[in-house]
Specification:
single chain; 419 residues; mainly beta; eight-stranded antiparallel beta sheet; 3 helices; elongated
Length: 419
Amino acid sequence: MSKLNQKMKFKAISYLAVGAMAVLTACSHEGDNFGDRVLFTGTETSPVVKFLCDGMSSTALTVTSTAKATTDVHITVKAAPELLDAYNKKYNRSFVAPEPNMYQLENTDLVIKAGSNMSSQVKITSNSEDLAEGVGYMLPITITSVSGDDLGVIEDSRTAYVQFTKVITIKAGFLNGSSSYEIPGFKCTDASDPLSSPVAALNQMTIEMKVLPLRFGTNPNQASGISTLCGNEENFLFRFGDGGGQPTNQLELVKCAIGTDPSPDKKEHYADPNIHMGTFDTGHWIHFAAVYDGSMLRVYRDCEQIAAIETAGGQINLSTAYNGSSGWFDTFTIGSSCHSRFFNGYVSECRVWNVPRTIAELENGLCYVDPTSEGLIACWRFDGETNADGSIRDVTGHGYDATMLTGSATWVDGQKCPY
């Protein structure tokens, strides 16, 4: 298309947009559907209201009018758990309504005083001790009536969906820049069979982990600028920095070798160049995950999707790099790769699955998952509980304990999750 035609097309679209806006503006003064209305404050772009429950906790909702009230406006609201099924279906979520004894509502009769456009508050109180770990709770609260000033309700914001999240206090593992773990149970059990490992040929997969960096590498142009988090070198690896000039505090997913051959060199590489997941400061928890469903590879940071890559299919190998050929025997590691490139910081809840986890499942399981969950191959909580030999117990009971590869680890108390 010529530049002239492009300009003409742009102008035509602009004229149409201006015309449409004029029509909408004219219509906004006609009929009850376009008069002044009320809505739950802050739900203009999303109906979800986050509520972190740490001990006995409270949050509050208000209702806003699109114009200042000329007389007192009375609004009633109520808890409406019966609306949750429709919400879950619409957004493909799996929230559970809290039981009535898990929360209290105070002041469900609200008032917008004359001359104001914001109501009094409805208060929601809950005790985190009443909430189960790993369960996503949500309570719809809906506007049932409005009287005064002949106000309608913006239907998309008639209901606020209050998402309860239980805050827990945990221990975390401290890797001090010279300590790391490996998973002997992930190695091939038969040297002649490169697929004799539970993670050598995953048709579907999820890796997730939480980390809090304390110090990053020093030189972005050298291997000393890399801080490895978890994965298998040359196959599928999360790390900070890449030694090739990228910032040492940049979270990256590396290689993503997917295909049918056991060797990563004979597979397609879907993160080469690496998938950049953002730069981070020290002292803050970060959750990251990669999910492969057999065709799509999705990458998440703090439960928000930041990449979606269509693949040609095949398997992911989290066992020994190059299957031990060329003298390279690195297996799945936590905190280092290539026997160096150490991570300096806290680690928690490292998990490997043979199923693709949904974003809802990632979010609901941010702090805890049931060790017997379907598809959970291994889970290392790094909560201070160790075996007699000092290894980190795989809480699934499958026996894929994480053994110390280098250095030693210590434990830090008082870490909050969610952070």
